[in-house]
Amino acid sequence: MELITIKNASKTYKTGVTAIHDLSINFKKGEFVFIIGATGCGKSTLIKMLYREERPTSGQIFIGGIDVAKITNRKVYKIRRKLGVVFQDFKLLPKSTVYENVAFALEIFGVPSDEIYAKVVKVLELVGLKNKAKQYPHQLSGGEQQRVAIARAIVNGPKILICDEPTGNLDEKTSMGIMNVLEAINKLGTTVIVVTHDTEIVDKMKKRVVVLDEGRILKEYAEGEYRHEAI
Amino acid sequence: MRLFRILSRNIRDSFKSVFRNFSLSIASISCITITLIVVAIAIILSANVNEFTRRVEKDVTIVVFLDEDVSEERFKAIEGEIRQIDNVGPKDSDVVAKDKMEIRKELMDSSDTYASVLDKYDTRDTNFIKDAYHVKVVDITKMEKTVSALKKIDGVNTVKYGEGMIERLVTIFDVVRKATYVVVIALILVTAFLISNTIKITIFSRKREIDIMRLVGASNMNIKIPFIFEGLFLGIMGSIIPIIIVTYGYSSLYNYFDGELFGNFVTLVKPNPFIFSISGFLIIIGMIVGMVGSWRAVRKHLKI
Fold first, then answer.
1. Does A77 lie at the interface with B, CB-CB under 8 angstroms?
2. Which fold has domain B61-160?
3. Any chain B CB within 8 A of the CB of A114?
4. What is the fold, at CATH topology level, of the domain defined by A2-42+76-226?
5. What distance in Å separates residue B219's CA from the closest CA in chain A?
C-alpha cells in the first residue's frame, strides 16, 4: 500500500535554481528507504517537500491521501503531527532536559501528564537513553543528542519518520548505532525515509535505495540490491 | 480539560521561560519599567493639574455690583436675567443675591477695622455698599463673554471677577492638562512599540525554539500563546517598580508637602485611593503592552 505518492513534482527556487525535476516516486507503508546522492542533487529539497517546509512548484505530493502541496502555511501543523522529522543538527531545546525535549512534542497537544510520562519513558527506552532523562543536551554526546531527537520525532507515534542526514555529524560507530535505532523503529511499523550521503552505512543496511542526481532519479535499488561502489 | 491542560502548561512554560532567558527578560522588564515610570509621572501630573483646575473653576465667582439707586423689585428681577445668560451655572447656589446690609454684616464680622468703619452706616439709605450678586459659571474659559453679558443688564454697575488672572491661569492649565493627556497616550504607544522591539530581539534569539515547535506540529496558536503569556509576565514584572515608586513616592511627597503646594494655592490629590487606581492602571498597561508586544514580535516569525 502506497503511503507516500509523489507525482511529477518539480521545485524551482526563487533564485532560479531548479532542485527537483519532474520527479515521481512512491513509498510503501512500513518501508525503510535511503535517498542518496551528491551534494546539491535535490535530496534535501525532496524531503523538505514531504514535511511541507517547501512546496513543489508543480506536481502533487500525497501523504496518506492528502495533497501536502495544497496545505496552507497556517495548516502545516496538521501534516507535521503525522510525521516525525530528524535533522543533522538535532534541533533540541538547549535549555530543556532530555525528558522535557521529548515531552514537548506531546505537551503542545494537551496530552495528560501521566500519559506523557509513560510515552516518553517508553521511547527513551527504545533509543537507549532512559537513564539520561534528566540531563541537558550539552551534557550528551552527538549520538545521544540525535537519539533524543529521534525519540522526540517518534513519541507521537507518527506513521512516517523523515531523517535529513541524521548521521552527518557523527562517527561511523555512532552512526551505526543510530541506524540500528531507526531500524528498530521501522520494525514497529513506522515508514522510515533517510536522506544521507554516507554510502557505507547505506551499504551495510541493505534497504531500498533511491539515488538522485540533479533533481532526477538516477537509479533505484530494491532491498538488498545496493552496493557501495554504485555511485 | 485538554484545553485547560494546554493553557496551564503554557502558563507554566512561559513563567519558566522568563527565567531561562533571564538576561533578555531583564532587558524587556527594564524597558517596561522605565516607560511606566514616565507614564506614572505624567498621570500624577495630569491628575493634579486636573484637580487644581477643577477646584479653581469651582471657586471662581463673579461679583456683580448693582447701581446704588436700584429698587428692591429691580434687584429681584435682575436674578432672573442673570440666570438666562449662557454659561451661568444652573444651580440655585450659582446665583446668590447679596443684599448690601448682608454684605456690610459679613464685612463687619470679618475684621474689627471694617466693624469700626461700617458701624454707623446701619440703614439701607446710609449704607454706601452696593447690592450684589455672586455668580458662578460653567466654563471658565468663556468668562469674558459672560461678563460682558452681565454688564449689559440694566441696573448693573460693575462686574468683578479676579481681573482675568484666574482665567488666564486656568487657560494655561487647560493646555497643560490636554498636553499631559497627549503625552500619556503617546508614551503608552511608544512603550508598546519599544517593548515590541525588545521582545522581538528576545524572540529572535529563540527563533530556533519556534522552528522546533513548528516542526513537531505546533499550530500558530500553540506557538503564540506561550509567548503572549510571557509578555504578560514581563509586563507584570515591569510594572512592579513603577507601582512601588508611585505608592511610596507619591505618599511621601504628599506627606512632605502636607498635601499643599505654594501655601494652599495648589491642593494635591489625596493618595488614597489615587495611588491604587494609578497602580491598577500601570499594571494593566504593563500587561497589555507586554502581550501586544509579544504577539506582534512572534507573528513575524510565523509563516502565515
1. yes
2. Alpha-Beta Plaits (3.30.70)
3. no
4. Rossmann fold (3.40.50)
5. 5
